[in-house]
Design goal:
- This protein has 13 helices and eleven strands.
- The strands form three sheets. Strands 6, 7, 8, 9 and 10 form a five-stranded antiparallel sheet that branches. The chain has a four-stranded antiparallel sheet with strand order 1-2-4-3.
- Helix 9 packs across helix 11.
Length: 468
């Protein structure tokens, strides 16, 4: 096998591979000899089939294996001999001429093909000892705990029939029939449906128009379905509902006491408050982590500039763009609605893709140099958490990940990234900064979109700009 490098340009490499016809013939004959004792052909005893007859019957299929083995061998040789770190699997290009292909399959000509490779860039790890990042710190207040308690008490509130008109906070028992352009539509009819006024669980404007009605009243309620309504055939359409109020119910007294706590599995109100405080603090800490990580990655991104494997960038961009395009269509939005054009949006999201690839390569090399490992039990624990998100399908989800190494790698990757981030945070100066809850969560989406993409963050692409 002869391997010759024909291109070395930036991160791209190409190699010409030639397996002379004599060697190709020898490999084919060897493979046919190997299967001689295993095949069964009418008229011949096992192991006594002439090689020429085997070649007529199995020659082309066996040659397919010979060619694939030669490709695998060439790829290994190229990588090992040149000590290459691949960004992508090698791309193999065979001749397009049918006569040449036929000569190869019948072992009458040299097997020649091209292997195109894109390698990972090499770069020095930057010194970040002088970097300072801010860590927003927010403590849970009594007001926030009391707000949560009030919401929980409302969830458990009892309602009692009342006379008179319905007011905000009351609940009305209704029958209704909905129509679009005078025609009833599927899902638009209901009987004995309880509507809590002010809960904003129905179509915008529906609940407000029931305020002031009393038992026995009827009303024609006119609303418009949101443009991003989950049922696409209803999204953005005007509708009318004939509503009959059958009963008005007023909420009973909100009781925030030990009995409320017991309803949520806690032995006392104090224990419930502690649980609420811990849950809120976990949310605050998680958001703080996201912000300090973003600050760190911004600083890290500013320290690196190197050529990127365009195959990885294209793969990342295509994933982002598929999500953006899907969400834009689902929300029935256009780029004009976002005050941009498709070309401008693509340019912005390509910058996001480039940043993700660059930071991914940087974090990978830093982690490798720091000998950061992810233990199997850590992956197992993360997988268990993932499986719990699919109640009733735990076994199927577990087996899916166990049988798909690539899917399992997607569980391992964020664990590795978080460990590398912890390693980096130990090398920089982290300054705690006390902030309010509003400040902690302020401008989350716009900041992430700007820092990762350095461009506009369209409504359709919010999710695309969140993960590294």
């Amino acid at each position: 096998m002869q391997v010759t490098e024909t291109l070395s340009q930036g991160l791209k490499r190409e190699f010409k591979v030639v397996l002379p016809v004599a060697e190709l013939e020898q490999r084919l004959s060897s493979e046919l000899e190997n299967i001689k004792g295993r095949v069964r052909i009418d008229g011949f005893r096992p192991g006594k089939v002439p090689l020429a007859h085997l070649r007529r019957v199995y020659g082309r299929s066996v040659m397919g294996d010979v060619v694939q083995n030669a490709v695998n061998e060439a790829n290994r040789k190229i990588v090992e001999d040149n000590k290459l770190k691949l960004a992508f699997e090698p791309q193999v290009v065979f001749p397009e001429d049918k006569a040449e292909i036929e000569n190869i399959m019948s072992a009458k000509g040299d097997l020649a093909f091209t292997v195109a490779i894109e390698v990972l860039p090499t770069f020095e790890i930057a010194d970040i000892s002088g970097v300072t990042v801010k860590k927003p710190v927010t403590k849970v207040t009594d007001e926030e705990i009391n707000e949560s308690l009030t919401r929980m008490a409302k969830q458990n509130a009892t309602f009692e029939t009342k006379k008179g008109k319905a007011a905000a906070g009351d609940r009305v028992v209704t029958d209704f029939v909905g129509r679009i352009d005078g025609e009833e539509f599927q899902g638009g009819k209901g009987e004995d449906v309880r509507v809590e006024l002010g809960s904003n669980t129905f179509i915008p404007g529906f609940e407000d128009q029931l305020i002031g009605l009393k038992a026995g009243d009827t009303k024609l309620v006119k609303v418009a379905f949101p443009v991003n309504y989950m049922a696409a055939h209803l999204a953005g359409k005007d509708a009318e509902f004939d509503v009959t109020v059958k009963e008005v119910e007023a909420p009973g007294e909100l009781k925030i006491d030990d009995e409320l706590a017991k309803g949520f599995g806690m032995e006392s109100l104090d224990k419930l408050k502690e649980a609420i405080s811990s849950a809120i603090q976990r949310d605050f800490d998680a958001q703080s982590r996201r912000k300090v990580k973003k600050d760190l990655l911004d600083a890290l991104d500013g320290k690196y500039s190197f050529e990127l494997p365009q195959g990885l960038v294209e793969q990342e961009f295509n994933a982002i763009w598929a999500q953006v395009d899907g969400e834009m269509k689902a929300n029935k939005r256009t780029f004009a609605d976002e005050e941009t054009t498709e070309e401008e949006a693509k340019a912005d999201y390509r910058k996001i893709a480039e940043r993700r690839v660059r930071l991914g390569l940087v974090l990978a090399q830093i982690g490798e140099k720091a000998d950061i490992k992810i233990a199997d039990d850590e992956v197992t624990q993360a997988l268990i958490e993932r499986v719990r998100q699919y109640p009733g399908q735990e076994k199927q989800v577990w087996e899916f990940y166990q049988k798909n190494p690539q899917a399992l790698a997607e569980i391992r990757a964020p664990l590795f990234e978080e460990k590398v981030v912890d390693h980096l945070l130990s090398q920089v100066k982290v300054v705690d900064e006390s902030v309010s809850k509003d400040e902690l969560f302020a401008d989350e989406e716009s900041e992430e979109g700007e820092s990762k993409g350095k461009g506009k963050s369209t409504k359709g692409g919010k999710k695309a700009s969140k993960s590294e």
